[in-house]
Amino acid sequence: MLENYFPILMFILVGLGVGLGPLILGKLVSPHKPDAEKNSPYECGFEAFEDARMKFDVRYYLVAILFILFDLEIAFLFPWAVVLHDIGLFGFLAMMVFLFVLVVGFIYEWKKGALEWD
Amino acid sequence: MDTINTDLFISMPEITMLSMAMFILIIDLFLNKNNRMIIYGLAQMTLFAAAYLVLSLNAFAIDVAYNGMFISDPISDVLKLATLIGASIMLVYTRHYMQLRQMFSGEYYALFLFAIVGMMVMISGYNLITIYVGLELLSLCVYALVALDRDNARATEAAMKYFVLGALASGMLLYGMSMIYGVTGSLDIGTIAERLKDAFEQNPDFIHNPVLILGLVFIVSGLAFKFGAVPFHMWVPDVYQGSPTAITMLIGSIPKFAGFAMALRLLVFGLAYLVGDWQDMLLVMAVMSIAIGNITAIAQTNLKRMLAYSTISHIGFLLLGLMSGSLNGFASSMFYVSAYVLMSLAGFGMILLLSRKGHEAEQLDDLKGLNKRSPWTAFLMLITMFSMAGVPPTVGFYAKFTVLQAALHVGFIWVVVFAVLMAAIGAFYYLRVIKLMYFDEPVDTALIDAPLDMKMILSLNALALLVVGLMPQGLLELCGVAIATSLPHLL
């Protein structure tokens, strides 16, 4: 029974090897001559303008995620539109149910003000 | 068109729940903030309507819908009914708590109902994809609910941990499913079972196929993650403690029905031929869960954290029943999960009852001298703690008894002895709660203030632990019949 688990052991070992091997290799082989200038942060070759840990607005993130949600429905709509003649009324209604569920989400986000920019 | 009508008919409870959840989400946008009780009423009505539909539509018959992706059998009927009743009780318990903490929102009820739909789909899923989609629907709603109190750092941290580990678990489960699909060429659980049977009859060595075993390992790991069984239990204490208590109750109670159904569908309906392999895995996890859950709980001072470790040990017992691999074992597991949900509803309900605005009664010290503050509340907590510890004549005792009996029947005598010893160790921290309530002076002397319906349901809930413990026959038989009629062809 136990030898069946051998592939799992191999899997773990190979996984560890692939992960750790390059790191160890890099440590051993690469030249290591740090100085203050090399260790300091830089922005595209310039001195750093400001601290990287600043607050930034995630509003765009919300719009992006909503876009993905509603954009994905196109992936369903295209094949559906191509075969609409073959799948008939049932296919049409099934897609309408799907779109209705999406519209519920749309009404919700609109009314909640997720689409207001300020 | 004809088959789709029967399909819709069979899945009517789920469709009702889904439509109502969307309706609640929209209606909440147009409601005045002071009229939120309407939402609460609608949510309760939805649960009742779904329960009625489960009961009235071909209850206790085996129907398959959507080309075999969805099954309605006695197991699913019983578990769905139990889930819906549990959800309804939970809504009663949490209403006041949520009102006091500005979380009494339409989103809470919509997400709550969506989570219940996820559980129902998991219970009825008869295809790897259906089960996975149900699981994700449940998990995603619960992640959001944990973070509902978003200015609370603890809750946000808990949500983050839960999300990352939950996603990992889903990944493992899905990876295992992909391997099972690779070997059997089907996602349909019935077909998987048939293909394994044919392959096994042609060549008995087939079940040692490494890919099959690897798939099983990943599926069992994913299941164990979702259950919170050792060694995949790391998220349980942090999430239980960090979440708002109302949400802890949602995580810690009724989803176990769905988890049990999922384990049954995957391991017993689908991979029954691998029983020798999953039995070993479940055995190791059961023993470790019982040991680590009970021993670690002793060191806890936070009541929610203590209940989290208590859950881990209960899951160990649940797995012990499943591990037995007999009809009797599955029925005892089903009985155990019902008893567990009843106990955890009462336990978390008690924390909700003692909490008030700006104060969470989640420390053990908050229970000190409860008998002086309110003898009846202390008595209800006494029953709950006795039941969790497994003291006769409460239902907790019968649940442990039937599970251990099933394990004994298939010859795991040392495991049973070990489990009993661990349960005795576990009795310490339950009894400590009782000692604090009856023999210590109160630290917290505030008046216990809760709505009447919550007090009444909580009393009934705790008394039910005693009543079912005295007369376990009905529930035992129900579980036995459900398992025996749904699984006649197996093992």
Low-confidence stretches of chain B are none
The radius of gyration of chain A is: 27 Å
**For the largest beta sheet of chain A, what order do the strands appear in spatially?**
1-2
Q: What number of structural domains do the residues of chain A give?
A: 2
**Which term fits the overall shape of chain B?**
globular
Largest interface by Cβ-Cβ < 8 Å = A-B, 14 and 15 residues
Outline the structure in words.
Chain A is built from four helices and two strands; from the N terminus they run ααββαα. Chain A is mainly alpha-helical. Chain A folds into two domains: 2-47, no CATH class; 59-112. Chain A has a two-stranded antiparallel sheet. In chain A, β1 and β2 (46-47) form a beta hairpin. Chain A starts with 5 loop residues before the first helix and ends in a 6-residue tail after the last helix. Chain B contains 21 helices and two strands. Chain B is globular. A two-stranded antiparallel sheet of chain B has the order 1-2. Chain B has one domain (2-486). In chain B, β1 (63-65) and β2 form a beta hairpin. The A-B interface holds A 1, 4-8, 11, 90, 101, 104, 107-108, 111-112 and B 1, 4, 22, 25-26, 29-30, 208, 210, 213-214, 217, 276-277, 280.
Brief summary:
Chain A is mostly helical and 118 residues long. Chain A has helices spanning 6-29, 36-39, 59-82, 84-112, and strands spanning 42-43, 46-47. In chain A, 69% of the residues lie in helices and 3% in strands.
Q: What are the SSEs and their pairings?
A:
The complex is a heterodimer of chains A (118) and B (491).
Chain A: H1 6-29, H2 36-39, E1 42-43, E2 46-47, H3 59-82, H4 84-112
Antiparallel strand pairs in A: 1-2
Helix pairs in contact in A: 3-4
Chain B: H1 2-10, H2 12-29, H3 36-56, E1 63-65, E2 70-72, H4 74-100, H5 106-124, H6 128-146, H7 153-184, H8 189-202, H9 210-227, H10 235-242, H11 245-252, H12 255-270, H13 275-298, H14 303-323, H15 327-354, H16 370-373, H17 375-389, H18 395-409, H19 413-439, H20 452-470, H21 473-486
Antiparallel strand pairs in B: 1-2
